[in-house]
Amino acid sequence: MSQPRRLSSLAIVAVLALVLTGLVSSPASAGNKATRGKVNYGNTSWTAGTSGYSIKGKATGRKHRSVALQIKWADGWHTVAKTKTKKKGKYSFNGSLNWYGVHKVRVMVPKTKRDRAKKFKAKKFSVAVPWEPRGLPSSYAPFSYQGINFAWNPCKTINYRVNTGYAGEPAIAITQASMELLSRATGFKTKYVGTTTAVPLDDKPYQKGTDLVVAWAHQNDYPSLIQAVGRGGTGPAKGARRRSNNKVVLEIKRPGVTMNMAYGADYPMTMDDPGHESMGLVLVHELGHAFGLDHFADDIQIMHPGNRSPTPTGYHPWYEAGDLAGLRALGAQGGCLKPYRSTGRWDAFQLDNGVHPGMYRD
Predict the structure, then answer these.
(1) What predicted TM-score, i.e. pTM, was given to this entire model?
(2) DSSP code of 121?
(3) pLDDT of 9-26, one tens digit each?
(4) Which of 62-76, 221-235, 315-329, 333-347 comes out lowest in average pLDDT?
(5) Which DSSP string corresponds to 269-280?
(6) Nearest-10 Cα torsion for 319, 325, 326, 330
(7) Neighbouring residues of 302: CB distance < 8 A, sequence distance ≥ 6
(8) Closest by Cα among 257, 239, 163, 147 to 201
(9) Contact at 8 Å (CB) between 100 and 127?
(10) What are the CA-CA distances from residue 12 to residues 4, 18, 19, 23, 135 (Å)?
């Protein structure tokens, strides 16, 4: 009589085990439904400033599901645009991508409580430079301090202001055009946030929310501008590391450019000119200094320290092969920065406590 009762107890235990297993496993099954869908990347090749992306697709799941458009940097994938699914799971992205070069782009649908994430196969997008860059890609030199290069953190937008000073309103348009060229060469995000009375050569803090100042001043007020059409530099910098490879860099914190309007009669207040270097061309050169490029002795390159060799159509603020390679090496492709943590290899003054004096060049 005792044997059947023992078997019954075992059966009850087995049933309870199944119930408990089901209860324990149910949370793990949440968000476990596979996401299906498709993506059509559309046109993936154009010349910067002439077109953009138009991406369409579908993804399963509830309506208004988040969808992200991402681009690959050295430290991983970064979201450049977001949208939500509409009727029948349809989504679309339309926008501009004017960053010169070849970039990996993908659509990613994040996970939800019911659905798994979906990473669609990446596609290469090619954005061509609107001119034929001259010279060699090796023709550039980065700013360095005791062997450490300078770098802007591409995870931060460059909020810039203009001190129109001796140049007046035309300075704003020329500065904006020059910043657009910098953005296309580096992948950095830039935003004009208004005017200012600050001058970088004063070495005083900028107003809140300002990263870069471009001032149009005069050598009568700033003797360091004598014999220079402009001066640009990284400003104070502090130690940081690349997230992608832990490499130590000096993070640019307060870049600046000061233009000398004593040369206003000699350098046209334009970007292009058929017979003479323009203020726009010089400004593009100085912005190269502000974001980590030093001079290079090749008179074809923008970063040449003296007068440049003109193109067949005159003087243009066009980055050449070396300039482009240098700005790409210092640009967003390298990935974001993280705070410096000492490993005993660098002295405290350089990186832990010291704010580096800005490096300015003509």
Answers:
(1) 0.87
(2) P
(3) 444 434 334 444 444 444
(4) 333-347
(5) SSS-BSSS--HH
(6) 120
(7) 281, 284, 285, 288, 308, 317, 318, 319, 320, 323
(8) 257
(9) yes
(10) 13, 10, 11, 17, 82
